[in-house]
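Lay summary

Proteins are chains of building blocks that fold into shapes. Our project writes down both the chain and a compact code for its shape. Here are two examples, one after the other.
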Amino acid sequence: MVKVILHGCNGKMGRMITGICKEDDGVEIVAGIDVFDGVENTYPVFSQITDCEVPADVIIDFTNAGAVDALLSYSADKKLPLVLCSTGLSEEQLAGVQKTAKRTAILKSANMSLGVNTLIDLLKKAVSVFAPAGFDIEIVEKHHNQKLDAPSGTALALADAVNEALPDTYTYTYDRSGRRQKREKQEIGISSVRGGSIVGEHEVIFAGTDEVITLQHTAYSRAVFAKGAVEAAKFLAGKDAGMYDMADVIAAK
């Protein structure tokens, strides 16, 4: 049984993870951290992580960049593996992640969905076939109208996967409105759609002469990210210090 401290237990993702863990015999939440109360939990909840002395095997974090510094310090001091799902980290914080990974295991991924990370693996294989054959590559990502950043981190991860497979052959184009010229062969167009309550949709288009191949992932609920985080926690418990990502989780299955 993997024992988890859930950092951000009373947020939307935290409550989803709590529900998933209740149905999973391989994992148990033994403590939660959240500045907000008013949510009934079956485990003790602390307002700050430094107050938590409950023994655990791993931390799952779904909070925000403002809470990450104290979390990294705690994880390093306790040598407690960390599944880090908070986004929008500064360059200084990213350097702190790397420093902490020298003392304990950290898993960080642009997207926690098992499906998206399998898509990335498939994309690396597909691009080795289609790119040499002259196919153009475009990425379209769609999210809800409250999302602040564009393009999404996942769209960039998909583009990076192409460059890792080739390697570093393509440049990224986010907007073509300010130029009048033909599409460059060595570019990946990345387009963003924001509207309604779209949870997340990512489409990679390989456009060739007289044929188009599309790889697509659609998230209908944020639960896919919560499920991925739980799987990551089960994988990370007991691992040696270092940086890990969801590709390692998939490879272990």
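And here is the second example, written the same way.
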Amino acid sequence: MKKALIAYVATLLTFLLLDGIWLGLLMAPTYRELLGPLMLEKPLLVPAAVFYCLYVIGCVVFVVLPALTWQRAAKMGALLGLVAYGTYDLTNMATLRGWSVQVTLMDWAWGTLATAIACTVGFLLAKRLA
């Protein structure tokens, strides 16, 4: 139980930090330019919080805890990110007018990388601290 809790908190904090930098500092102007009227002025915090909590549960259950090495955590985290973000971005591309191919590719790559990093950090800290 302690290992799972450490894995969850470490993965969540890593993912929040990475996504905060990506969405808040690096890509906010690009997303606003490419998605324009599709974006809200301010994100809705409750759905965002539910997403992060739920997504990190998936990361921990499907990647971090079963992994035997940090390399496996990174690879499986990348695969989970590829599938999850691909599902989101490709569905948006298929159903939303004004959803750009550029956003799809950037966001998909980002989700793959961020998930791989967060799962790796979660794995390493859970292994070290539990």
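What can we say about the second shape? Residues 81 and 112 are 4 Å apart (CA to CA).
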